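Review session, final week

We close the course with one last complete record, chosen because it touches almost every idea we covered. It is Polysaccharide biosynthesis protein, a protein from Streptomyces ferrugineus with 515 residues. Go through it on your own first, then we will talk.
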Amino acid sequence: MTHTTSESSAAAPLLDLHALVVAVRRRRRLWCSVALLGLLASAAVAVLMPPPPTAVTKVLVAHQDDQPNDPGTLIRTDVALLHTTRIAGRALQSLKSPEKPEDFMKDYGGTGLTNNLLQIDVSGDSEAEAVARAKALADAFVADHVKRIQEAADAEAKTLLDQRERMRDELAEVNEEIGEGPPESGPEASANMESLFARRAELTSRISDFGQRAAEARTGTPQLIARTQIVDAPRAVEHSLPRTAATNAGIGLVLGLVLGLAVAAVGAVVADRPVLRREIAANLGASVIAELPRRTAVLWRRRRTRAARERLTVMLARTVRGSAEPVSLLELGCARSASVIALDLGRALAADGPVVIIDGLPGPQLARRRKPGDPAVVGGERAAALPHQERRLGVGSVAPGAAWTDLQYLGTQTVLVVRAGHGSAAWLHTVARQLADLNIPVIGVVLIDPDPRDRTDGTLWDGLHTALRGHNERLARQNGGGTSHAVQTAGQGRPRTERQPMWAGRGPDSDQEAR
């Protein structure tokens, strides 16, 4: 069995997605609460902190270097220039406002809609102030842009005219040399004159070219200035509180849901609390023999739960009647369910004779639910004084802090009542090891609050403990137990019941298990 279980543990994936999904789904209260909190918080922010009055305007910006394939560099430059203290200061001057440009820059923003269309959003204390601010800011930007165009055109024209004047001075020198003429004739003098005439023609052409380019530089400026204008007058932006609250609530819901799912997933991985049947059975070393929902409020589910509880009571009563040794119920994370099962089982066994329930649960769980006519309930300290004729049914706990040595006084066989997702894998393994050390076989596991979509197999097939639903005792009696006919005829002494060995479920050893 050890070899088989080791191979199964080695083949187990590092992260079981099925178990992770189930664990996250079981923590739906957490992520639903976080999502609801995000929804309410976002809606509250929209109601308690409404956005300030805002105005918007659009400006058509003409650039001297406009190209059809421009990736938006020019308009991004305009957006950056809009956020400068020069433009903000000019807008404040037109508004005659004492506010600092640095503070005013926090109240507006620019967005490049296209390569030549700039949208300006400005906020203020009122809608009228926001509209006035938007108009002043747009006028300041247009004036600054026009001024930069004019300055660039003037600088270019001045450079061209300066070049033309230098060419004219050089042309005057050439004309002067030509007018003086060479002092003597000859081939060399003729070549010299031809060179001067060619230079004069080149200078004349270049002077004309510079003059034309200077005129063109100044001619294109009025077109750029005329095209740069406010195309959408400043207007107040309508604010709808219900729409804003709904939008914020939707965003908060999505963000809260994502955050809640992430927290639930991380918590499930870190906590390592088994929720599937196969995981619980493997860590406890015992098969799941029954399942019960934890609580239910729906009528038809109540009937289904009541029927499942009755079937469980009949099965456990049959097992206890066929057992020669006392049986106990040990709970982990479900004291209430264990007390209800114990009382139902005690009532079923009371029809055969006196039954005493030994209460080892923390708190008055059994006493609070006991009804008139139910079996007697005594504490663990009175268990030794009970007469042997009465049938005993022990109820205890294997939660952290349990007194392990007292469990054998509750019963030499046990049924574990475990709530899915309550104990960690290390603690389930610790429970199995402690029970094995006390030589208390586990008849089976009753799973409380299982996942309704869990389709894994909770039966162990690779060990003797898979047949501990009363079968091992029958084998023990046949091999020499007190009720065997062979033992009575052989004249042997006191009846003796031999218990089959039990192994704890193999799992990852750790220091936590030892504790």
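Two points worth writing down before the exam:
The chain has a mean pLDDT of 79.
The chain has three domains: 22-50+241-269, 54-236, 274-514.
Good luck, everyone.
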